[in-house]
Amino acid sequence: MNKLNILFFAAAVTTAIAGIIHVVLGIPSNNLNSQVLFVVGGATQIFWAVPMIRKWGTVWYGIGLGGTLMFIAIWVITRIPDNFITGRGGRISDNGILVEAFQIAFVGIVIAILVLDRKSFSKKEGNAN
């Protein structure tokens, strides 16, 4: 297994784990908005393991990257006191930190994939510097 394949596998695992935790946290929520966000967003993250494993291409990786960055931004914003989403600062839990760690890892891995994939494409096309 080459380095790029390992990165694709790692990206799939990190997004799937973050998604599983989101779904597990979202199902028992008493707040319908939170429940929908966590369950739908988590299911999407679980699904996103497929484009990573099957290497569907840079558009898919970019969409996954953007969606994950949005999830991270929502978490950060909702932790700020008097924020414009909830009006109060949410607590920082162990589960939240765990999810954010997996999401940040996914972001880093996808960026590495995009960089390495571009380099390997350039070499194949004879455009390497």
TrEMBL record:
Q: Which superkingdom does the taxonomy of this entry point to?
A: Archaea
Residue ranges spanning the membrane: these are 36-53, 60-77, 97-116
The answer to whether UniProt assigns keyword Transmembrane helix to this entry is: yes
Keywords assigned: Membrane, Transmembrane, Transmembrane helix
| UniProt-recorded name of the protein | Uncharacterized protein
**Source organism (scientific name):** Nitrosopumilus zosterae
